[in-house]
Write a structure and sequence with these properties.
The protein is an alpha/beta fold. It contains 10 helices and 7 strands. It has a 4-stranded mixed beta sheet, covered by helices on one side. Strand 3 and strand 4 form a beta hairpin. The longest helix is centred in the N-terminal third of the chain and has 51 residues.
Length: 330
């Protein structure tokens, strides 16, 4: 074998060693794409949102049966029905995404509780553990403040069924007793319990903040109707009298807003790009002025980018520094 062939053989052997254990095949390729390529959503001028992450509303059994076996219907009626089904799917997807996040938060909260009581037991059995110094400053004022905060925070989380409202009036009364010995005993008993409650609430607080921001932003856009969320029910839309509304009872602009915002919410877990053609279609002037900032507020802290193609001065005027003008040179 000539020296050149020996060199080529060594190089090939080195390359084989470098690729040993590296996944190959179609699934490995798709997994690599998922890790490195942003998810893409496209909202076209027909108000259809396309993405690998979005179910095709035409796949719905009801729509297929209408098109294949039902009475002949106009194309416009099928398009309207398709949009209603798409919105129902989006609301369901957003509710399931929140549910998964809530479960993760609850599990983390349980781990926090476990850690708190593990630390308490470790301190009790430790040979070097010390009895509390009677001359040390009383922790009671701080505990009273923390109990008040737990009462308030748990009440807020209960609004979306992320937690049970924990009323702490009895605990605060126990800590406010006149007997110094009893209040010190109550404080010692309550400290690990309070830490465990705080751990649980802190674990689900991020998803609470996100849900609350989402609901507040959407309700700031809607008129004479509101959207609410509960973990057991998902999203519910109601008119000003509290009567539930179906997606079919919303205007095309309201359907478009809810469809977009629901998928923006569920896209927070991965780098994502939303390409939106003429977002001003079906949106009144108020919505056009608020749309971009509302989307930025919901996506705060995530890796989501928006690319708009628009002729709306109402939409563009507040974000002139981010506008790129496209000119036909021909």
């Amino acid at each position: 074998m000539c020296p050149r062939n020996r060199v080529n053989s060594k190089a090939a052997s080195s390359r084989r060693r470098d690729f040993e254990g590296v996944p190959r095949g179609e699934q490995a390729y798709l997994d690599a794409l998922k890790r490195n390529v942003p998810t893409l959503f496209i909202l076209n001028a027909d108000r259809r949102l396309d993405s690998d992450s979005v179910a095709d509303p035409s796949d719905e059994v009801e729509l297929r049966r209408t098109m294949q076996f039902g009475e002949p219907k106009r194309i416009n009626e099928l398009v309207v029905r398709s949009r209603e089904i798409a919105l129902s799917q989006a609301l369901g997807a957003a509710a399931r995404w929140i549910g998964r996040k809530a479960v993760i938060g609850t599990n983390q909260g349980s781990m926090n509780v476990h850690s708190v009581y593990g630390a308490v037991l470790k301190r009790l059995v430790s040979p070097g553990s010390k009895v509390a110094d009677p001359a040390a400053p009383s922790p009671i004022p701080e505990l009273l403040q923390r109990l008040t905060e737990i009462d308030k925070t748990s009440s807020e989380h209960a609004r979306y069924e992320l937690a049970t409202h924990l009323q702490t009036n009895d605990f605060r009364k126990a800590l406010s007793a006149k007997s110094t010995a009893k209040t010190k005993l109550a404080a010692e008993l309550l400290q690990p319990y309070i830490r465990s409650l705080e751990g649980r609430l802190q674990a689900v607080d991020p998803i609470y903040q996100l849900i609350d921001r989402f609901v507040l932003i959407l309700n700031g856009l809607l008129t004479d109707k509101s959207i609410s969320f509960k973990l057991s029910q998902g999203f519910v839309i109601a008119n000003r009298l509290g009567k539930p509304l179906s997606p079919a009872q919303l205007s095309s602009g309201e359907q478009q807003l809810l469809l977009l915002f629901c998928y923006v919410l569920t896209a927070r877990d991965a780098p994502t790009i939303f390409m939106i053609d003429e977002p001003e279609i079906s949106l009144n002037v108020k919505w056009q002025r608020q749309l971009v900032q509302a989307l930025l507020d919901i996506t705060q802290g995530s890796s989501i980018q928006f690319i708009f193609a628009s002729h709306s001065m109402e939409l563009l005027a507040q974000h002139r520094s981010r506008v790129v003008k496209l000119v036909n040179k021909q």
